Amino acid sequence: MNETVLTGTAEHFDVIRLWEEDDPDAVLAERAKEITAVATGGTTIDGAFLDKLPALRLVASFGVGYDKIDATAAAERGVIVTNTPGVLDNEVADTALGLLLMTVRELPQAERYLRAGSWNERPYPLTPATLHGRSMGILGLGRIGEAIAVRAQAFGVSVAYHNRSQKDVSYQYYPTLLELASAVDILMIVIPGGDETRHLVDAEILKALGPGGILINVARGTVVDEEALAEALSTKTILGAGLDVYEHEPAVHPALLTLDNAVLLPHVGSASIPTRNAMGQLVVDNLHNWFTHGTPLTPVQESTSLLQNPQS
Ligand code: 8YV
Known about the structure:
By secondary structure, the protein is α/β, with parallel strands linked by helices. 39% of the residues lie in helices and 12% in strands. The chain has helices at 3-12, 24-31, 47-51, 71-76, 89-104, 107-115, 143-154, 177-183, 203-209, 226-234, 254-258, 273-293, 301-308; strands at residues 37-40, 58-61, 80-82, 135-139, 158-162, 172-173, 186-189, 214-217, 240-243, 262-264. The protein binds 2-keto-D-gluconic acid. 2-keto-D-gluconic acid binds at residues 41-42, 62-65, 88, 267, 269-270.
């Protein structure tokens, strides 16, 4: 758990550090009736877990994505869920552009080449692709997607997008992912994870992206069929992929590890101390505001009706 969450919660609450307990289940059972809030950073919270805590009123999640939390089951039990949107947008967008440049210009491969002493023999081969003048399709134009779009344009990359519905923005909208993938050079995934988006990017979408295509994923690994991606990379159905997230983190599909046209980061999208502390502070502020004013700062969408009608 992030240090800011630990110090911030300790100031206002009687905190149980479950991960430090020898038998966390026993502690949960023993103190179930006292636990009114849970702060979490990536644990699965489903209906069965919520049923163990009858006094629970708030789950404050560290991170913008909350696909491991069943927010609908929480709402049904009168439990609010909060996440940490906004404060990590710039960091994740920066990482996305960094990963894109690394992938298009093969920068990690070139660095490995230098360290291996190969430069003494001959220069690193020219990269087949360049970034300027290419087109990017953003799958999931939310806050982070918009921050990526601004940066992409500064790099001379045109932007299009696919969402479930069109937004009031100037970027070209494609009503289906297949049309978007067919139209662009770079597919940038920023859509939330979870059952609704599982394997949206499959063999058909990768084929549509085509042999010059680059896939970047800074969202959730579950959005991509990793098996199909490994196949598309090894058969050069697409040119390359830059990934920060994986289906079964921290495990990475073994085939991806062997492919030189994949750039692989260990889920570091928001992982700077200042940004993680800002996320941690928002967890603390959500908890504090809920218990002092009854208004969490950043409830997730599934919790909003509960706040409008607390008796429901
Ligand atoms: C963090 C993230 O890695 O916010 C998210 O949804 O994926 C990342 O910022 C994650 O929150 C760590 O628990």
